[in-house]
């Protein structure tokens, strides 16, 4: 299981809690943090760098003497959260529409990074079109778990209708733009996480987490839910993810 968690400004190992839960379920899990961008300009290409990094990580593992003997190449899965979920879907053959991506910040459903791009004077339309539209399909990937993936409305439905691996979308309490369209046009299963918002997919906060974020100029909403509420979402996601994996890639014992 390759795991890519969080958006452009997430800290490394943000998905450690989910990696641990999947590993407890019997899977080898590699969280691929990737290189985090320094500023909005370097962040613009992360949408296509993420799937490339996941493929490179799989190459490294399958060619590593210590790991290659432990990995069944016929049972490789990818899970991703937010932009990581977008990357995971691209590995199954999903393609982002270049024009739709360029217009995203001027739609009714702008990306959470649009304001950040604007403060840096970056226009998403300046993304490298060749890199963005280069097919990222990886035939080695046999199952995809896309958890609150970004840019659902910007995916070409036709590319996912011909996906190379089963894709399951785990949605939030409020459906994302494009979620219902993709489900209807591609047959992708959408499993809503009851009572969850995006920040509930991150690790549990310390008791003083919200205050610390506010003092450091961060968003205290990142720690807006209680430990019990967030823990319930974690349990729900972990159990559902293991159930989906068990059906897609059943364990050999």
From TrEMBL:
What is the native source organism of this protein?
Answer: Alloyangia mangrovi
UniProt name for this protein: Alpha/beta hydrolase
| Gene3D superfamilies assigned | alpha/beta hydrolase
